[in-house]
Amino acid sequence: MLFLAEMEVRLPPDMPAEHADELKAREREYSQAAQRDGRWPHLWRVAGRYANVSVLDVGSIDELHELLSGLPLFPYLDIRVTPLARHPNAIDRGESDV
Amino acid sequence: MLFLAEMEVRLPPDMPAEHADELKAREREYSQAAQRDGRWPHLWRVAGRYANVSVLDVGSIDELHELLSGLPLFPYLDIRVTPLARHPNAIDRGESDV
Amino acid sequence: MLFLAEMEVRLPPDMPAEHADELKAREREYSQAAQRDGRWPHLWRVAGRYANVSVLDVGSIDELHELLSGLPLFPYLDIRVTPLARHPNAIDRGESDV
Amino acid sequence: MLFLAEMEVRLPPDMPAEHADELKAREREYSQAAQRDGRWPHLWRVAGRYANVSVLDVGSIDELHELLSGLPLFPYLDIRVTPLARHPNAIDRGESDV
Amino acid sequence: MLFLAEMEVRLPPDMPAEHADELKAREREYSQAAQRDGRWPHLWRVAGRYANVSVLDVGSIDELHELLSGLPLFPYLDIRVTPLARHPNAIDRGESDV
Amino acid sequence: MLFLAEMEVRLPPDMPAEHADELKAREREYSQAAQRDGRWPHLWRVAGRYANVSVLDVGSIDELHELLSGLPLFPYLDIRVTPLARHPNAIDRGESDV
Amino acid sequence: MLFLAEMEVRLPPDMPAEHADELKAREREYSQAAQRDGRWPHLWRVAGRYANVSVLDVGSIDELHELLSGLPLFPYLDIRVTPLARHPNAIDRGESDV
Amino acid sequence: MLFLAEMEVRLPPDMPAEHADELKAREREYSQAAQRDGRWPHLWRVAGRYANVSVLDVGSIDELHELLSGLPLFPYLDIRVTPLARHPNAIDRGESDV
Amino acid sequence: MLFLAEMEVRLPPDMPAEHADELKAREREYSQAAQRDGRWPHLWRVAGRYANVSVLDVGSIDELHELLSGLPLFPYLDIRVTPLARHPNAIDRGESDV
Amino acid sequence: MLFLAEMEVRLPPDMPAEHADELKAREREYSQAAQRDGRWPHLWRVAGRYANVSVLDVGSIDELHELLSGLPLFPYLDIRVTPLARHPNAIDRGESDV
């Protein structure tokens, strides 16, 4: 089950650099683990912004919220979620519909 | 080169059903041709709306506009385009970054 | 799996009354069937507007879109969907979490 | 009498963790008490956000404001309230219309 | 129980003048009846707009919606409703709190 | 001459409680004086928000601004003002049109 | 007493040219009469839009609404009104504060 | 003197194709004349939209409005104008600052 | 050449009162000098807000930006600029079109 | 390949002046280098705002993001990017289409 998640990062300007770096390192690990286990099939940077566009593949809304609220940067993220259904014009790509 | 395109369809309420059907049939063909030749790698329906979320893969902005403005439904679409860069946390999936 | 759906109805002002009445009658039947089979557990009118707030209980996003796009009034609805997760402070009400 | 309340939590980024934890613990107690006594029949988490969608059942607007402004997190909440009327298509569920 | 209602009138530009006049005459009667029976204690024109600001005094949300949706101009109104509670700084004016 | 004023209070989260309390006490006095002398005929709380809806009755725009900018909480208020004219459908209530 | 009025003109695209011309001619006369009698001290065109920025000088809000709602183009105008007070830094220009 | 103009084209869906074509042909001529005489130094298409981003070089605001309001498509354009000043970091390109 | 400038002042809540007072005193001087030399023909307070509506009369956009960015409060101002052209219905007032 | 970038600068009000000055000096150097090597063909100041309108000429979206995110002021910028295609009405200016 796919959800589009648009995430905007808003770090407080006075956060110490080391703290920010540590958060970002943990975010990287967390995000890559979810990419590897298939829950985060797409992750793109929005050009010119500290923001990303993601597609998430989860079994339930609870799992979606658990995944997103577990992000180390979650307290500093503004996330908009859009549920994605199969499009009638989408062709069968011989694999999952991700 | 990837672009997110969010498309909202707004058909005039008094468009004759046959005309709408014909446009939609042509839209389907056009869209599926672009999916097959690799320019339209992702196409999802926004749940609850006559709208889609798409990822397009083109060689230039001119090619992007040509692809979008050629859509049979283009006069009735409200399209917002977001250029997508590679995300530093994205893992290498052993294929294109689509 | 629960989704909040906020629906605004926008009938064209020149729609003949009989056509509107027929659509509304079919909408009523469709909506009540979905309420009875458990997919539409809550339906409220927004005071002062031709609009509703609904909670839908479906097994997948595709089922959600099928349910919503099948509404007889769908071409005239502006629907915003919000996925709802279980809240950590919600008490167990001894029944489903609807 | 039912009201939809959409609540967004915005804690100051520099609030000490212990203070936040204490507020959240009191919020939990307060919210669960209101759920148990019937004034807060529905409470859901908005997926991906530190936010909730609630339905409140109160005898008057004054009681509604008293309930909401008594929330321990109230100074950090952005709350939008929508009054809900009975929908003419709603079926009788053999209990209150909550 | 008081509600602020901000109403914007949007008549279709091609509505025949006689039809508009008839609707407005019925609106006037309806509105004045509700003013006289106490359900519509305040009615002001927004300067420069075909719009009004109203305060309504009703016993329930259902009664509020019944009152508003019964307006002859209702299909052409965009109404935003705000529930009003007693303000702690409001003085006792020796009459109802309207 | 009547103006609708919608006021939202935004106190800085780090304002010391005593300072806030002192401001609120002065606000109360100031507001009640203006209610008593007739310049502030209506004051309601917006349910669920630290906000109010007011109707002010002043002799000029300068007097309106003087009244509002004199509020002890003025530096923390976001105020939107709407000039109110007599509505042609308003009935004569045998007193001022407030 | 001064009010800023920002007016946007939205003529229906299918209004016959003669009707539009006649409305515009009457608008011109009406506007120039109000300019001459001092109620409309400033009238500017917003560059690139069928819109104007005006300053109106009236004795009351009722007079303001009468002036604006009497505009021949009023049914096609979207008007936003802002009440203007004397600015403490404004110098005395040896005439009215217009 | 430079102005950014962002123009969105909104043709009525029921405009006859020949009329639209004729307007577009005249628009093309008009636009190219202004490009050639130096008043319209930049003209780009917004990818995915029937819209453009333009930079105009005129001697006065009146000339700007004359240029824009003379566009054959002007009645169907939504134009937002932004005045552009020289940027202190801009390098001297050995020609005009266009 | 005239520009409408709508300025909103947003002083940080923790700015020391003396610093604010000194900035405001310099703002007053600066503004009055520009009023006297003709570059700032109109300055009004927006009723109920720490904001103003101004009309500026300058020879170029660069001069406009120099004037505005030189304001002592400039770092705390949110300014929206609208270029004003002569309105075809404006009467000749026997002086400049300010 | 051209992109419009609209950048708004939002420095924290408590940033020490020396730090701001140093950032601005580096921003100037960085920006001028990109102007000289052709990646930043246009840079204008938005009159009345600490903001700019830029046109960037890059070979890919990744290069665009690298250029923008490398700006010394990037953490304090709010950037909106619009991809620009060739306009069918644009004349050939005998050089690049910048």
Question: Could you walk me through the main structural features you see in this protein, from its secondary elements to its overall organization?
Answer:
Ten copies of one chain form a homodecamer. The first copy, chain A, has helices at residues 17-36, 61-69; strands at residues 2-9, 42-46, 51-57, 77-86. Chain A is elongated and about 50 Å long. In chain A, strand 2 (42-46) and strand 3 (51-57) form a beta hairpin. In chain A, 36% of the residues are buried. Chain A is built from two helices and four strands; from the N terminus they run βαββαβ. A four-stranded antiparallel sheet of chain A has the order 2-3-1-4, with no helix packed on it. Chain A has one domain (2-84): Dimeric alpha+beta barrel (Alpha-Beta Plaits, 2-Layer Sandwich), CATH 3.30.70.1060. In chain A, 30% of the residues lie in helices and 31% in strands. Chain A is α+β, with helices and mostly antiparallel strands. The model of chain A has no long low-confidence stretch (mean pLDDT 95).
Key descriptive features of the protein:
about 30% strand, elongated, about 100 residues, four-stranded antiparallel sheet, 4 strands, alpha+beta, homodecamer
- The CATH topology assignment of chain A is Alpha-Beta Plaits
Query: What number of domains of chain A?
Result: 1
* Structure summary, number of beta strands of chain A: 4
Percent of residues in helices of chain A: 25-40%
What order do the strands of the largest sheet of chain A run in, or round the barrel if closed? Answer: 2-3-1-4
Oligomeric state of the chains present here: homodecamer
What percent strand of chain A? 25-35%
Q: What average pLDDT do the residues of chain A reach?
A: 95
Output the CATH class name of chain A: Alpha Beta
Supply the CATH superfamily name of chain A.
Dimeric alpha+beta barrel
**What is the global morphology of chain A?**
elongated
Helix/strand order of chain A: EHEEHE
Q: Cα distance, first to last residue of chain A?
A: 9 Å
Task: Report low-confidence residues of chain A grouped into runs of 5 or more.
Answer: none
Enzyme class (chains A, B, C, D, E, F, G, H, I, J): isomerase
Keywords (chains A, B, C, D, E, F, G, H, I, J): Aromatic hydrocarbons catabolism, Isomerase
EC number (chains A, B, C, D, E, F, G, H, I, J): 5.3.3.4
Subunit structure (chains A, B, C, D, E, F, G, H, I, J): Homodecamer.
